[in-house]
Design a protein that fits this description.
The longest helix has 17 residues. The protein is globular. The strands form 2 sheets. Strands 7, 8, 9, 10, 11, 12, 13, 14 and 15 form a 9-stranded mixed β-sheet that branches. The chain has a 6-stranded antiparallel β-sheet with strand order 2-1-6-5-3-4. The two termini are 25 Å apart. It is an alpha+beta fold. Helices cover 29% and strands 29% of the residues. The structure holds N-(5'-phosphopyridoxyl)-D-alanine (PDD). N-(5'-phosphopyridoxyl)-D-alanine binds next to helix 6 and strand 13. The site of N-(5'-phosphopyridoxyl)-D-alanine has 14 residues, from helix 6 and strand 13.
């Protein structure tokens, strides 16, 4: 089936949606994005993703292409016309097409480019990895210093994914100054006793929308949360480890650099958090 995608005001077959070769997203990775999951045909935490998009745009002095209400309408229309029950909506805003290549930002009146498309993932919430857990390797974090902005500069995360593939594991965790920052496309956590430990928010990591919700639910469920740095060695000695993201929700990590985490099987705390997260998010989906 040919997907219908959205480009700058138009709903088009994916084969007909074209962006200029001068687009700043293409030439400079001068763009930001969001991924919102869809469960049962409804959007999960749309408000959270909209708020982070606004923040990313503001941090880069990038014009907003439209209002939150318009974005919601576009998301819903794409989910509907593409018949998405479970999957994702990808949204990207770039600084647009100034008509030539120049390092300096183009004049403010240059129209941003807005692209959205859906990805159909039947059974997204029933991924086998929720039960089997993920194996990860650690790799140096050599990304830029503003990882809190969700930009489309994803070359190094892609390289890290390929390093993970070459090592026959599922993903990689980034390490900087001996401390875990986050996963290639997710936030990283360990569990010790009753305590959930994850790096505090800063410019070093993406402020995950799933992270915010999961930590809120954990605190509401009287679980202890400690926001601090941890090393790979501490993670290998932890009782459990897990990741969160809009597309993986809460997914256990069972092996780090070849060493089993805890019993080497998916942990109870991660399973409980996944259950609470999916239950609460289903209720609040729009
Ligand atoms: N990635 N850290 C990084 C580097 C990420 O790319 C992501 C999300 C997260 C988790 O953020 P959230 O909970 O808001 O999805 C953390 C998305 C899913 C992606 O690039 O596909």
């Amino acid at each position: 089936m040919t997907r219908t995608v959205y480009l700058n005001g138009d709903y088009l077959p994916e084969t007909e949606a074209k962006v200029s070769i001068f687009d700043r997203g293409f030439l400079m990775a001068d763009g930001v994005y969001e991924v919102t999951s869809v469960l049962g045909g409804k959007l999960i935490d749309f408000a959270g993703h909209c708020a982070r998009l606004r923040r990313s745009l503001a941090e880069l002095d990038m014009a907003s292409p439209c209002t939150d209400a318009e974005l919601l309408a576009i998301h819903r229309e794409l989910v509907s016309v593409n018949d998405v029950t479970d999957g994702m909506v990808y949204l990207q805003v770039t600084r647009g097409n100034p008509g030539d290549r120049d390092f300096a930002y183009p004049p403010a009146e240059t129209k941003p480019t807005l692209v959205l498309f859906t990805q159909n993932k039947p059974g997204l919430a029933d991924s086998p990895s929720a039960k089997t857990g993920l194996k990860v390797i650690s790799v140096p974090d050599v990304r830029w210093g503003r990882r809190d902005i969700k930009t489309v500069q994803l070359l190094y995360p892609s390289m890290a994914k390929m390093m993970a593939k070459a090592a026959h594991v599922d993903d990689a965790w980034f390490v900087e100054d001996g401390m875990v920052t986050e996963g290639t496309s997710n936030n990283a956590y360990i569990v010790k006793g009753n305590k959930i430990i994850t790096r505090a928010l800063s410019n070093d990591i993406l402020h995950g929308i799933t992270r915010a919700a999961v930590l809120r639910f954990a605190r509401e469920a009287q679980m202890e949360v400690e926001e601090r740095n941890f090393t790979i060695e501490e993670a290998q000695r932890a009782d459990e480890a897990f990741i969160t993201s809009a597309s993986a929700f809460v997914t256990p990590v069972v092996e780090i650099d070849g060493a089993p985490v805890g019993a080497g099987t998916a942990g109870k705390v991660a399973a409980r958090l996944r259950e609470i997260y999916l239950e609460e998010m289903h209720k609040a989906a729009i």
